[in-house]
Amino acid sequence: MDRPLGRSTAGDPVIRGAARRSVAVTPCVLVAGCFFGAPGTPSLLRGYRVVIEAHDSISDYLALALARKGFTVRRHIKGGNPPTAALVTFTFRELGATPTIWFNARLADTRSGAIVAAVSAPLDSLGSTAATRAQSLADSFAARLQPRRDSPP
Predict the structure, then answer these.
(1) What is the spatial distance between Cα 50 and Cα 34, in angstroms, rounded to a whole number?
(2) Can you tell me the distance from the alpha carbon of 105 to that of 81, in angstroms, rounded to the nearest whole number?
(3) What is the DSSP string of 30-59?
(4) I need a labelling partner for 84 at 20 to 30 A (CA). Which of 21, 99, 114, 148 fits?
């Protein structure tokens, strides 16, 4: 079919159908790229660096475990970097007949202070050694930061 130069083909039914399909597919591809882009790095922290400044045993093991999970981990704050989330940990002792010690870990944006991710668990449930506790925390962070596959974006 010959068309004059400079004339739009938007009126052609085949072209219109293809344009509608591409408009419908493009947002799906963009959303999928956001959620399933870089393998290994949890999606909500993609682009973030995690800073763990403490040098106690659980912090050292946690830095290694998070790095194995795909996080970019630094041991000190450095200016001029992409968004960074600092690890803050603390314990809380619940009073009562059976006192429970809770271990709390937070990843907070260093610029805004907003909590990016949080894990709270009874210390006993994390494991008996610093290495197993750190691995449990890294697994919990990764699980909380992965998008749920059964819910729409």
Answers:
(1) 20
(2) 23
(3) HHHHHHHSSTTS-GGGTT-EEE----SHHH
(4) 148
pLDDT value for 48 = 81
- The structural domains of the chain, with segments of one domain joined by +, span 10-38, 43-145
Measured in whole angstroms, the distance separating CA 52 from the mean position of its chain's CA atoms is 16
- The secondary element (H helix, E strand) that includes residue 120 is strand 115-122
pTM: 0.65
Cα 12 from Cα 17, distance rounded (Å): 9
Please give the radius of gyration of the chain, using alpha carbons only, rounded to the nearest integer: 23
Return the CATH number of 43-145, one of 3.80.10, 3.30.160, 3.30.410, 2.60.120: 3.30.160
